[in-house]
Amino acid sequence: MKNKLLILFCLGGALLGSINAQTNKQLAKDFGLSIVQSFFDGNCDYMFDNLDVNITSIEGGHKIAITDKMRKLFCSESPLRADIELTYTMYEENYAPKIYDMNELAQKYPEWQAHLNLEKGDFFFDGAHPAAAGNIRLFTAGDMARFALRKINGDWKIIAI
């Protein structure tokens, strides 16, 4: 009887852990989508306010200290194409955002994981993943909607771009 209770307790804990991980993954994805929506709303302050104090470069791994002086420079250019009128609905129609935990990122993009050193509970948001071949490109660069997220003091923060 004790063994059965122990097994049930262990299975219940594993199931609860899995549910919490999926919930956190969805919350991270929702936060990532709110960042992308801020591009279309012209609300650069929203993204800037959600940057951690130090940001890691996805491609090079170097760290950049975020300061208030950088806000004007950061917000001086839109990440969206300027040659056509764009809407968030167009984003939803043309992109299929993906969210990866540290293990999934290491499998899919090992070079990025090597630079980022994501920790348990961190996520990589790939909001530039096309929904299908031939999608309408909305961003000025392919990596504009890709960033790593970490929960810091109860709030999601962008830790890498």
**Number of DSSP helical runs:** 6
Q: Helix content range of the residues, please?
A: 40-55%
Beta-strand percentage range: 15-25%
Q: Rg from C-alpha positions?
A: 18 Å
Global structural class = alpha+beta
User: For the report, how would you describe the main beta sheet?
Assistant: 6 strands, mixed
Count of beta strands: 6
What is the general shape?
globular
Mean pLDDT: 86
Please report the distance between the alpha carbons of the first and last residues. 52 Å
- Spatial ordering of strands, largest sheet: 2-1-6-5-4-3
Order of helices and strands: HHEEHHEHHEEE
Residue ranges: pLDDT <50 for 5 or more in a row?
A: 4-11, 13-17
Descriptive notes:
- The protein has six helices and six strands, in the order ααββααβααβββ.
- It has helices at 2-41, 44-49, 70-75, 88-94, 102-108, 110-116; strands spanning 51-56, 63-65, 98-101, 123-126, 146-152, 155-160.
- The protein has a six-stranded mixed beta sheet with strand order 2-1-6-5-4-3.
Short description:
By secondary structure, this protein is of the alpha+beta class. The protein is 45% helix and 19% strand. Helix 5 packs across helix 6.
Keywords:
single chain; 161 residues; alpha+beta; 6-stranded mixed β-sheet; 6 helices; 19% strand; globular
SSE diagram, text form:
Elements: H1 2-41, H2 44-49, E1 51-56, E2 63-65, H3 70-75, H4 88-94, E3 98-101, H5 102-108, H6 110-116, E4 123-126, E5 146-152, E6 155-160
Helix pairs in contact: 5-6
